[in-house]
Design goal:
heterodimer; A: 5-stranded parallel sheet; two-stranded antiparallel ribbon; B: mainly alpha; Four Helix Bundle (Hemerythrin (Met), subunit A); 7 helices; extended
Chain lengths: 180, 163
């Protein structure tokens, strides 16, 4: 299906990134895509404060953060405590594509993953995916976040993430391959 | 036997859908190009950061080498610089820098310990980045880029075989 052009001027995005220049890159891309309301935060505490005062429609966050780890920030958002919206879509942006890093972000409740270096095309594609294919949320004893199974068709052939139907989903195996 | 954990599904109300509208007849590539142009305005600043990071990488590498790999602060600094470069360079036309930085970061992240041998491997990565910076090799670097990456890959493969 052809990519649609969306007017994003009514959407608000919070960018959480500790590196000043990387934050500028992300903000410029997002504004270039037509988002006019972009909030910025340098660390998790600042981002939580921003979200409590100005809830964002989408969070774009780095994973390897100074101070509060990215995983702690995402857990706090998903907890929904103190006025946070636990259903907010979260795009994790990271240069660290080692499988265990991505799986940690997924298992903490990220919505989309975007590998750095970022391009406008790749970030736009993630935003369109959030608009067009919203994922239902799942609460289990140990997880709250978007359903980690992306497709629900009977013929789905992708990786199976649930413990009961997991076959080969071992992060260390993927890391060993990546290392070569 | 323990009870199976209860699974609850929550439908996503997707409020964003109500905030956006499709702009009929407008090619999304125009939007993407506009955003790319917006980012391109930062390329001058990136060139400065790149040059500064190369100097800082050299300094961190020297300290790490002198300590035989034991200086944790130098290693941390080295990884931060490599991590920043791999995350930014590709956006400004230096994908080869991102690849070399990525290879070095993965090497650090997946190494159990850092000693003399590991320092040697990291030094080769830093030398490659210095060469790319000096020659201002943009894009994938063509045959020179392939040779650089091929050389680093071989070094890591050899290292892995010896483990």
């Amino acid at each position: 299906m052809a990519l649609k052009t969306y007017a994003l001027d009514a959407v608000s995005v919070l960018v959480l990134e500790d590196n000043r220049f990387m934050r500028s890159i992300l903000v410029n891309v997002i504004k270039g895509l037509g988002v006019t309301h972009v909030l910025e935060a340098r660390d998790g505490n600042e981002a939580l404060e921003e979200l409590r005062n100005h809830p964002a429609d989408i969070i774009v966050m780095d994973w390897e953060l100074d101070g509060m780890p990215g995983s702690k920030f995402l857990q706090t958002v998903r907890s929904g405590k103190r006025g946070l919206n636990p259903l907010t879509p979260v795009i994790v942006v990271s240069a660290n594509t080692i499988a265990r890093n991505i799986l940690q972000a997924r298992d903490t409740g990220m919505t989309e993953f975007l590998a750095k270096p970022v391009s406008a095309a790749s970030l736009y594609a993630r935003i369109v995916s959030i608009i067009e294919n919203p994922r239902r949320f799942v609460r289990t004893g140990s997880y709250f976040g978007p359903d980690r199974r992306r497709r629900f068709e009977a013929g789905y052939m992708g990786p199976k993430r649930r413990s009961e139907d997991r076959t080969l989903d071992d992060a260390d195996d993927i890391d060993a391959v990546n290392r070569a | 036997m323990a009870d199976k954990p209860k699974v609850e599904f929550i439908d996503n109300p997707n409020p964003i859908r109500r905030k956006v509208r499709v702009e009929q007849g407008i090619d999304p590539q125009n939007l993407i190009k506009r955003a790319d142009n917006q980012v391109a305005k930062l390329s001058g600043e990136f060139e400065e950061i790149f040059a500064e990071n190369i100097v800082a990488l050299g300094d961190a590498m020297t300290s790490l080498r002198q300590s035989g790999g034991t200086d944790e602060e130098s290693l941390r600094r080295l990884r931060v610089l490599l991590h920043d470069l791999r995350g930014q360079a590709g956006t400004f036309g230096y994908p080869l820098v991102s690849k070399v930085g990525d290879s070095a970061c993965k090497f650090i992240d997946l190494s159990e310990t850092i000693g003399g041998t590991e320092v040697g491997v990291l030094n080769m990565h830093v030398d490659a980045l210095k060469a790319i910076s000096q020659a201002k090799i943009k894009g994938d670097g063509g045959p020179i880029g392939a040779e650089l990456m091929g050389g680093l890959r071989k070094v890591i493969q050899k290292y892995n075989e010896k483990r």
